[in-house]
Amino acid sequence: MKALVLFGAGRNAAASFYMFSSDNWIPICICDNDQSKINTQFVIDGFVLEVISPECVMKRYPDAAFYITPDPPQKFEIIEQLLNNNIDISRILNYEPFCYLHSCDLIGKSINFTPTQLHHCCSASNGVKPPLICDFHGGGFPQNRYVDSVNKLISANNSEYSPCEGCRNFHEGYFSVQKFPINSISINSYMHCNLHCSYCRPSGWVKGQYGWWDMHESAVYSIADTLIGMYENKIISQSTQINWGGGEPVLAKNFSDCMKMLAEKGIKQIINTNATIYSESITEVLLSGLIQVQVSVDAGTPLTYFSVKGEDLYYSVWDTIAKYAKVNSSSITVKYIVIEENSGEKDFLEFINQCDISGVKNIAITPEYNLLWRGHYSDSLVRKIIDLYLLLQKRGFITILHTDYFSTEQKDIIFNSINGVEI
Ligand code: SF4
User: Fold this and answer.
1) pLDDT tens across 323-367, in order?
2) Which of 3, 6, 37, 415 is the most buried (most CB within 10 A)?
3) Please, which pLDDT band fits residue 375 given cuts at 50, 70 and 90?
4) Which atom of ligand 1 is nearest to the CA of 106?
5) pTM of the predicted model, to two decimals?
6) Can you say whether residue 19 is alpha, beta or left, with left for phi > 0 and alpha for psi between -120 and 50 degrees?
7) Which domains does the chain possess?
């Protein structure tokens, strides 16, 4: 058995301990920079690990190996600290090359497939135009062009002209320089959707009219072959997360085959579906725990559902949700995007009842991001979000409230109102 120091007494420490407790390594202590943690004890399953300072570790265990428990960017700060203390790379078990520059965690780690192009990120997550990798219409993944594009983007972002300037995710800090496997794939290669949500459709839209989301299926390439090739070439792995977005994934060409194939390889997937169409394949894979299904219902009454979604499918959606929840309720999250037209008390209460009836346990509440990013998300809507959050908490639901992109003032309103409630 070889001596191992876990660096970081935070939330990943226990998982890291389990990773090594049955291996050739024996965790001998936890090291942390936080003075308030030094000389405390970390108890995991009756096993006691002392928390000591880095200086103390260097003296006491001059030959021990290190495993860094925090995720990047903190992980890289610790690697730098160890290297500055003359700890050889070979003694850092989860060493990863990194650098300090202007970038974001997605560059070199994420790919967004759109109907005709590959991008470095998805427009829904940042608020500026997603940087382009290259045109793409299916087939093998253009690995060389991707690497070239990552290098060019990093270099441009650290020059006078920065394509990512203005994006909320763009910042100065530590970033991994290891390109593969890629952490995250967004599949938005098909745009067809059978709903016409008010936050998606252009103003002035009338029922029956086609929009950008109504792309014809013949124009859509199959993503399955591309992803299989990426897996075989180690561009993606079991640590990669696949996000099905775009239009409605269940309507996408080869969705079932592709989703099952990825699950068979142990790759985790998030499926953002509107649940208007029940998928036997989703039910089959749900038990594996490898897929998370997210359904944005955004209404508590059939009338509101019709107004927000443009179709009269409220009860069939809850029917599908109940079928999925029956198989594995911990893998289903029902989402509520709070906007003016769905934020009445009746909608909130009925929505909560339907979650109960359908066996749903996990709820996510979000603002409408286009409104938020344009600065049009009112404080009164923020208060509605808080109302819904507190109602759900009272009824014992596991509730996630996405607060990332609110203004500082709006975050203050939220945190002051739900003081003591964990988000
Ligand atoms: S900084 Fe923003 S725009 Fe640039 S790649 Fe990251 S998320 Fe996309």
Assistant:
1) 999 999 999 999 999 999 999 999 999 999 999 999 999 999 999
2) 6
3) confident
4) 6
5) 0.84
6) alpha
7) 2-96 (3.40.50.720), 100-263 (no CATH), 273-423 (3.20.20.70)
